[in-house]
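Bench notes, afternoon.
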Amino acid sequence: MDELSLVGASRAGDKSAFGLLIDRCYKDVYRLAYQYTGSHHEADDVCQETFLRAFDSIGKLRDDSCFKAWVFMIASNLLRKRVKQIKRERKLAARAQGAAAAEVAEDKYREPFETLSAKEKAIIIHKELQKMPDRVRLAAILILMEGLAQKDAAGIMNCSEASVCRQLNTAREWLRARLRDLI
């Protein structure tokens, strides 16, 4: 069954059709959530909440051919809210533990970049992504990691292509500036 038929059946209340839609885009939504949060647990929670909200509001989907982009938009909205909550919780925890422990943890990533394994490099890049402003990080993940076109990312982020382009450039400059010492 093609995606349009599955969306139509889902609108009519067919749970198995919606399950097939989930199967088709779950990995992509999970990858987005994991790259954004850096946590498998958070990614699972966001995916579950995304698909629950999508099922509850499938009647609001304007264009049946844009199901995946619509689901990405739901996920990105949830991710922004979740990250704000996580940041608040981390600030409270950091106050409780003191800032010295955080500084020691950051210093271990100051080895020369070329001596690090691919996995260690990915960890460093991922940590830098987590420090970016939310919309900049989302643009970087959608375009650089998920391979979406700027037009599609703009639709998901509910902004113009020019705004996505600026955010992507900001992300590239951010990474360049912060990784310069390592390279």
